[in-house]
Design goal:
The complex is a heterotrimer of chains A (about 290), B (about 400) and C (about 100).
Chain A: H1 15-26, E1 31-35, H2 39-44, E2 45-46, E3 49-50, E4 56-58, H3 64-77, E5 85-91, H4 92-96, H5 100-108, E6 113-119, H6 159-165, E7 170-175, H7 179-191, E8 196-201, H8 205-208, H9 215-224, E9 231-234, E10 237-241, H10 250-254, H11 258-261, H12 269-287
Parallel strand pairs in A: 1-4, 1-5, 5-6, 6-8, 7-8
Antiparallel strand pairs in A: 2-3, 7-9, 9-10
Helix pairs in contact in A: 1-7, 3-5
Chain B: E1 2-6, H1 7-17, E2 22-25, H2 32-43, E3 51-54, H3 58-70, E4 75-79, H4 81-86, H5 88-96, E5 102-105, H6 121-124, E6 132-135, H7 139-154, E7 162-165, E8 175-179, H8 183-189, E9 206-207, H9 213-245, E10 253-256, E11 263-267, H10 271-284, E12 289-294, E13 296-298, H11 302-309, E14 314-319, H12 329-337, E15 344-349, H13 359-370, E16 377-380
Parallel strand pairs in B: 2-3, 2-4, 4-5, 5-7, 6-7, 11-12, 11-14, 14-15, 15-16
Antiparallel strand pairs in B: 1-8, 6-13, 10-12
Helix pairs in contact in B: 1-2, 1-7, 3-5, 7-9, 10-13, 11-12
Chain C: E1 27-31, H1 41-45, E2 51-56, E3 59-64, H2 74-78, E4 84-88
Classes of the chains: A alpha/beta (about 290), B alpha/beta (about 400), C alpha+beta (about 100).
């Protein structure tokens, strides 16, 4: 039996659960999991219906960085560090918005924690509200498409840059589309002492408006359009990127998702698509992604 | 060993002897010196198997202790006022998760307006949280109660967070001759933390589950049961510790001169000392007055309080906080314990925001109530005449 | 029957296994065991950990666990040799009158 599930309540085709499974498999279950409130926690930790096969704690929404720091300190004080690695699973809202304070504190003190941000680009558990990591143009219930507004107008917060700025030894992005790469990154993080941040792009079938059969395809398109660069930083230096052969225009990614479909008909849609294409072009330039 | 030390040192020294595993600190006046003293001890290698960190906020500090406690560590922090309220979400969460986190709250008034001085408004707001609370009247009592807090909180039939309230500045910064405990004495009373369950790969449990309506209510009944068991365990611990140290602070309440009293004054915290002194003066004048000091606030000793007050004619409560829109919270609690009895009831909010409480004022208050010169009900005292304006 | 209330609401590991989510989906995957190369891509990517490569008649093939399979179609979408097809469940084969 794997270290996570089956029998959990996630939507069919949920990207978060694919990411979680692969992280736990890469660590061979030798880990302590701290999980913030969110989809993953709700589908897997109902009383007497836990899908977890590893020691797990859920506390609150905004404190998972600190809770993981506490587990790290306890293991150090009680001389039990060899029992396993401390891993955090937190959504994009819990990471970039409400929990960014405790996350910063944990990074700053360089606790020996692997912090996995499961990025499904909105507060999906409460029904798709915008978060700091929601990309511009997204139709969410708190940035809905209306006669005036074409969805979210703000940017996607650069959590990778924030993590790198804290001077932690390892920062990476990954995607469920590249499961072997994801596992390699987790294994690598497990070998490093200190705070590690891995942001995993995890499509949400319900929130993005895609079918389970498109989960992996949409994650792949996010990479292929350079909207979600797959990169790796070690000790502050960019050491590895996943290059893109024949980069696709952003429309290919946007048109298959209900949350972006309005961009093709809304009066302000065209300028948003151009903005997104520019973001993709800037990513490609910044990380030298084009082969 | 007897030494003249400041209140915050007596707390830090006692915490050190309890062998904590994880201390998460965050500065806030007037408790900062407690965590500073612990930091010094840590820097000198005096804390043994302990990890000490300064967190990024009180919220972070409490959350660190949640993770650490769940992983099997004995945990401690100190805070007050804004910090206590900030970490209240986490402490309530810890109570529900049955984690025995111990903290010292150096009672301080709440903002706004900002005040760093002493009253009980901060801890009063957490009465409903499922967290145990006691009040101490002196630094010696604070020093003595820390091992009791760990012992009762970690009792497998209890497993709840524990707050020791001590008045900010009035106790924390005061010099007092303290009989400092010895390591052997504390070790005899307080065994190492042995949680019935904790996070380990050897037994991978899931902590902090969510409970749908079909089972949540029973969790709340269990919380109440834990508090009921705590009532017995706390009283037992008070007695056991009194035997070992030779200092008996009483049980959930401590009463003096109540047997034939016509009026009983009720206090909590450092004000007790002065009220005791005033009562002894009034007794010399032939006035039949007595003192009831509440030590345990949660679990609330309703039975003991009712027993002590059942024959008295006048109850006088000294409040250090206000439940705005109603009256003083201690009065509300005492009245609930006395439902059905028919004494006269008076409560006075004094010393809010650290306002000085002169001895003459206490003398006048008790004297006036005794002589029937005051109306029943809730009153503010130690306030000046004022007028409300806009600007 | 008394409700079990654990200390702090802890739960035992894998206590979700009595939630048989197999009745959720309208479709279910069928693996063509001849074509399957046992590459394990479906096994790594199933969100519900319910398709595993096992040895069957001396050949390694992917076998779905219909007790938990939600019919999401991820395995179908990632199989590099198209060995999986999605079939509509009998109960959903409705006739339009």
């Amino acid at each position: 039996m794997s270290f996570f599930g089956p029998g959990h309540g996630a939507c069919p085709g949920c990207g978060l659960t694919i990411a979680t499974r692969n992280v736990l498999d890469a660590l061979e279950g030798k880990c302590f999991v701290a999980n913030s409130t969110g989809c993953l926690e709700i589908v897997s930790s109902q009383y007497e219906r836990s899908a977890w096969g590893v020691p797990y704690i859920h506390s609150l929404f905004e404190n998972v960085g600190a809770v993981a720091a506490g587990i790290d300190l306890a293991l150090r004080a009680l001389k039990r560090k060899d029992e396993g690695k401390v891993v955090v699973f937190a959504g994009d809202g819990a990471t970039a918005d409400i929990g960014v304070g405790t996350l910063s504190g944990m990074f700053d003190r360089n606790h020996d924690v692997i912090y996995i941000c499961l990025d499904n680009e909105a507060y999906q558990n409460t029904g798709n509200q915008q978060s700091g990591l929601t990309p511009p143009g997204s139709n969410t219930t708190t940035t809905p498409v209306g006669k005036l507004l074409p969805g979210k107008l703000g940017n996607k917060k650069d959590m990778v840059a924030i993590a790198v700025a804290h001077g932690i030894p390892y920062v990476a992005t990954a995607s469920v589309a590249f499961h072997a790469d994801l596992r390699r990154k987790v294994k690598k993080a497990a070998e490093i002492e200190g705070a590690k941040y891995i942001q995993i792009h995890s499509p949400c079938v319900t929130g993005w408006g895609i079918d389970g059969k498109q989960t992996i395809q949409s994650a792949k398109l996010a990479y292929e359009t350079a909207l979600y660069p797959i990169v790796e930083y070690e000790n502050g230096e960019l050491t590895r990127v996943r290059k893109i052969k024949d980069r696709k225009p952003v429309e290919e990614y946007l048109k298959i998702q209900r949350r972006f479909r309005h961009l093709f008909t809304h009066p302000k849609g065209k300028e948003i698509i151009e903005m997104l294409q520019k973001i993709a072009d800037d990513n490609a330039a910044k990380f030298d992604l084009d082969v | 060993m007897r030494k003249v030390v400041r209140g915050f040192y007596s707390v830090a020294h006692s915490v050190k002897l309890c062998r904590p595993n994880v201390i998460a600190a965050y500065p806030i006046t007037p408790q900062t010196e407690i965590v500073e003293n612990l930091a010094s001890m840590y820097a000198n290698g005096e804390l043994g198997d302990c990890e000490y960190v300064t967190a990024e906020s009180e919220f972070g500090a409490a959350s660190i202790l949640v993770g650490a406690s769940a992983a099997g560590a004995r945990t401690f922090t100190a805070t007050c006022s804004q910090g206590l309220i900030l970490m209240s979400e986490v402490l309530i969460n810890a109570a529900g998760m049955r984690l025995p986190i111990v903290l010292v709250n150096t009672n301080r008034a709440l903002s706004a307006p900002l005040s760093i001085w002493n009253d009980h408004q901060d801890s009063m707001t957490l009465r409903d949280a499922g967290i145990m609370q006691i009040h101490v009247e002196s630094n010696q009592e604070a020093h003595d109660m820390i091992p009791v807090a760990f012992k009762v909180a970690e009792n497998q039939r209890v497993m709840l967070p524990f707050i020791i309230n001590m008045d900010g500045y009035k106790l924390t910064h005061a010099y007092e001759p303290i009989e400092l405990l010895e390591q052997e004495t504390v070790d005899e009373f307080l065994p190492p933390y042995d949680p019935p369950i904790y996070m380990t790969t050897k037994n991978p449990l899931t902590f902090g589950c969510y409970a749908p309506p079909h089972c949540y209510a029973e969790f709340r009944v269990v919380m109440q049961n834990a508090m009921d068991r705590a009532r017995n365990e706390l009283e037992k611990a008070y007695g056991e510790w009194a035997e070992i140290t030779g200092r008996n602070w009483g049980g959930h309440i401590a009463t003096e001169n109540v047997d034939d009293a016509e009026l009983i004054a009720i206090t909590m915290g450092s004000l007790t000392g002065m009220v005791r002194d005033v009562i002894s003066e009034l007794r010399n004048q032939g006035k039949k007055v007595g003192l009831l000091k509440i030590r345990s606030l949660r679990p609330f000793p309703a039975k003991e309080i009712r027993n002590a007050l059942k024959d008295v004619e006048k109850i006088l409560v000294f409040e250090r906080a206000v439940s705005f829109g109603h009256e003083g919270p201690v009065g509300i609690e005492v009245k609930s314990a006395c439902f059905g009895l028919t004494p006269e009831f008076y409560s006075f909010a004094v010393g809010l925001g650290g306002r000085d409480i002169p001895r003459e004022e206490i003398l006048k208050i008790i004297g006036d109530v005794y002589d029937g010169k005051v109306e029943q009900g809730f009153h503010f005292r130690t306030v000046k005449p004022f007028e409300e304006v806009i600007v | 029957m008394k409700v079990r209330i654990t200390l702090g609401g802890v739960s035992k590991p894998h206590s979700s296994k009595n939630m048989k989510t197999g009745d959720w989906g309208t479709e279910y995957p069928v693996v063509d065991e001849e074509t399957c190369t046992a590459c394990r891509t479906c096994e790594y990517l199933c969100p519900d950990s319910c398709i595993v490569v096992v040895e069957k008649d001396e050949k390694k093939v992917a076998v779905p666990d219909y007790d938990y399979c939600k019919g999401c179609g991820v395995c179908f979408s990632v199989c590099p040799v198209d060995a999986i097809r999605m079939e509509l469940k009998e109960v959903y084969k409705l006739e339009v009158c």
